Amino acid sequence: MEAIVKLKPLTPIWTGDAGRKCRMIRETGIIGSLRWWYEALIRGLGGEACDPTKSKCNGQSRCGVCELFGCTGWARRFKLDVREVKKDFAPFFIVKPNSSKRASFLGYYDKSGQSWEKNGGLLGEYELRITAKDEAILNTIKFLLKLSCDWGIGSGTQRGFGISLIDNDLQLQKPDIRIEQLNNPSSNLPRMDQFFFYKIPIVNIEALDLIIKEICEGLYITKKSPLSSFDFARYNYLPTAPWVRRAIRELFRDNDVLRHYLMGFISDGNTKPIHLSCWRHLIEKKDKEKNKTYYVCPKCRKKRVHDENMLKKTGSKIFVSHIYNKNAFKGNVEPEWVMKVWGWIPDLPSGIGENRQRVKNKLQENLKEEDFWKSCFGIEENPVDINGIEEVWDVDIEKLLTNGGEVL
Hints:
Blueprint: E1 2-9, H1 27-44, H2 64-69, E2 78-89, E3 93-95, E4 104-106, E5 122-132, H3 135-151, E6 164-166, E7 195-202, H4 205-216, E8 219-222, E9 225-226, E10 237-238, H5 241-250, H6 256-263, E11 265-266, E12 274-275, E13 280-281, E14 283-287, E15 292-296, E16 310-311, E17 313-314, E18 318-320, E19 323-325, E20 337-344, H7 356-367, H8 370-377, E21 390-393, H9 397-402
Antiparallel strand pairs: 1-5, 1-6, 2-5, 3-4, 3-8, 7-20, 7-21, 8-9, 10-19, 11-17, 12-13, 12-16, 14-15, 18-20, 19-20
């Protein structure tokens, strides 16, 4: 059994290679996204989905996700091939919103700045050929492609990448997903029943022009080369995700650990690991005799906290698209600008000083507040149609399966 899926990126797709560049859509990057969404579905339904970074699944014993996507000693149940119909590239930008301490790198950073116009990911048109041994598996993969293209396929989805249009009828049926192993409900891995999704319409065109002006003041092609102006007319998106992420981060500025846990972090010279027993950032100390560093917890005063009791990095749990024109490929249709914010809020550890419901309330209140969006882009006019915002929290997975992957 096989199917062809016509894919057109609305915001750039990023599937990096070993050199951290993106010159083609790599099948492994697409399959990785499909697996991520399938893991979230299985866990949300109460099933077992291993953490692929620590998986013990094999040919004799495997979770429901590895049953479909493969593991050591067990082959993947489908094949996916990508054909380039029309390849195009997005420009690379270093983006630094006003008042941000750190810049966002949207693509591959070439220090020379010579190839920046092709280092920001892939646009264009592509065909994905799916081959599976039976109709049920083929339908499940098409369903996962629909879900991931709508909300983010490939990597970098927390920074605006991966929103894509599927330009043909997938003829989806309800996926046949069978749960045989029960999951640990306290798992902090992605679970679809803890997901939220927002579709946010941009209707104030004058405000959109102000957003473009604000963006151009924060664009660079190298660390020392500002890009004071840029013609976005030939693109179907505006690189706005860093502004929205900064605004969401600011909502949790009074709790560093919570902010880093939700928005992601990597421990470095500025941000230290988190002590998993106390949920506090550790303090780095220097052992002068051994010329080594070690960590001390400022709360419990434990000295020399070991690696297994530290959180040194975590990915973002909140994802933001760029603003994009959803009608870009419809022909002779007025542009309709939207953005998406989505993610999942797990049950939070008690030591973090906050709970899931209050985080949910804060996001709900602010994402539907005019002042939030004015402040987000540093403009005096509200760009968002507040009454037109669509949202869903704590997804009804049975409904999602029945509706062919349509969240909103």
